Structures are given as structure tokens and as C-alpha cells.
Amino acid sequence: MPEIQSLIDRARKGETSSVQLLVGTERFLIDRAVGSLRTAATRDGVPELNEDLFEGKEITAARVINTAQTLPMMATTRFVLVRGVDAMSTEDQAALAEYCQNPSESACLVMTAEKLDGRGKLARSAKKLGIVFEAKPIRFGRLRSFVESETKSRGHTIAPDAVALVIDSVGEDLAALDDALERLSLYAGAGQRIDAAMVQACVTRIRIDSIWALVDAIGLKDQKKAVGALSSLLADREPPLRLLAMVARQLRIIARMREALAGGSGPEEATRIAGAPPFKARDLTISAKRFSIEDLSSAFSLIGEADRALKSSKRPPDTVIQQTVLALCR
Asked: Does pTM surpass 0.85?
């Protein structure tokens, strides 16, 4: 299954197909692909006259197909978007699968879904036709490439320590990273190199010191300090899900640091391998010694449970994150 970036690159060149199915949980990439396809499909006409947006849970396949087969007005292509096609009935998905076999050449039909049953007719047909594009979350190891690529697309180069500082400041949320890089681009000025001082000057930072204080307290099994650090972050209205993601990220850095040190790397080299800023070498070396493999394994299991609870449980988010921190300290 091709990754969605290949579709975005083609759309930016003005290339579209009659049907595209975008599947995955990375909303930022889905929205970017939809925007690029919309721009490409409606570039030679009046967009408002040739755009149709539907929600899967509220629409039938017959309505979607009828719309896609309606000739565009004063343009060559009609753009039709169906969000949440996975919410449509099995019968409607089967009807769309049939449409995919012989789509209208004057339409650009884009369907999105977080997850689609691979055994269903729509998924099987779209995969066979090669029109499924996957939007997977960008993992930590690829965030650096994402930041460098997004910076380059805005006409800048960026210093390696600035890349690390942006990620450390913003986290793994692609939309937040994109917003930070846009502000950095405007702050730096056309064609200028972005350095760490610029990041410190204009990127709104999550309180990284408090995050590290929280992680350090967890490593020491100090519930009082951990709850204090967490309370400070929650008082600053940091979303619990984001806090959990930041704690998970810091622990992954510690895990990579521990592995690199065990492999014979010195502190500076291990810090680079871990993907952290050079000035964190000393702190990371200490943290790596505090956390055993068993500690980290247990921590990641608890974080996984908390992530699921924050996304699906009816419990208050603040309560979930507080109970998780207490459990991590135990």
C-alpha cells in the first residue's frame, strides 16, 4: 500500500486520479492530501461550483455516485470528498467498489477512512486498483526528516540543533510542528537559515524542564515530586494526551540512550543516536542509569493503557493521567 506522501507529491504537480482512498489515523497527512487534491482538481474552474463534501455516516453510495457522475460546471473536473467512508453500510461500500471499477473521468472522488475492513469489497477493490494510500503516524525516527523537509519546502535550511529543539519544544503532533515551522519561516525571513536562537525566540514551548522533572521523578519513584510536576503542567492547561505523548517520547529517548551506552558509545554520541540535543548528554546519561529494561517495559505498557483510556474512556482526562503517573512511580 503506497504511503500518502507519494499522492501529495503528485497532487502538488497537478496530477489527480478519478478515485483515491485515503486510509489511516494521521489526520494531518489526510487533510494535507485532501487539500492538495482539491487544489489540483479545481485549478481550472470555480471551486465553489464543483466541490461536494459528504460525511459517510450521513450519505448513501447512490448519492455519492450520482454526484460524481454530474458534469462539472465551467471546469474539467468535479471534486467529491467522502469523509469516514468506513461508517457507510456494507452495501454502500460494495456499491462504491463497483463505481471504482468504472469511475467518471470528469470527477475526482476522494474517500477517507481511519480503518477499513480489508475483507470488504471496497478495500479489496481499491487495493487491487492501486488507489489506496496509507496515512501512518510519523514515528520519532522520521520526525527529523519531516521537519527538514517542511523547512526546505518553505525555502529555508535549518541547523541540526534547531531541528532537535523544535521537536523537543513541540512534540510529535504534525499539525503543531507545521504551525511552528510556519511561524519560524515568517520570523526568519525569506531564504534565511533557521537556528536554535530563532526557535527559542518564537516557538511557544511546552515546559520541557517540567516534563523532564516529571520523568526524573518517575525514575526515582518519587510520587510527591511527580504529582507536583504534573499538577504544574496541568495548571498550564497542557492537554493530558499531549503530556502523555511527551512523557512517552522522553522515555523512548532514555531507552535509546541506554541502548547506545550499553553498546559502547560515549555520552555525546549516545545522545545523538537517541535523537536528543547535545546539551542533554549529562542528564540523559544519569536517566539511562536510573531506568532498567524492566522499568521501561512496564512504563510503556502503562502508557499504552493510558493512551487507550484517554481516547475512549469516559473518565476525566486529568484523572487518567494522574493515575498513570502514580502507577508509573509504583
From this structure: no
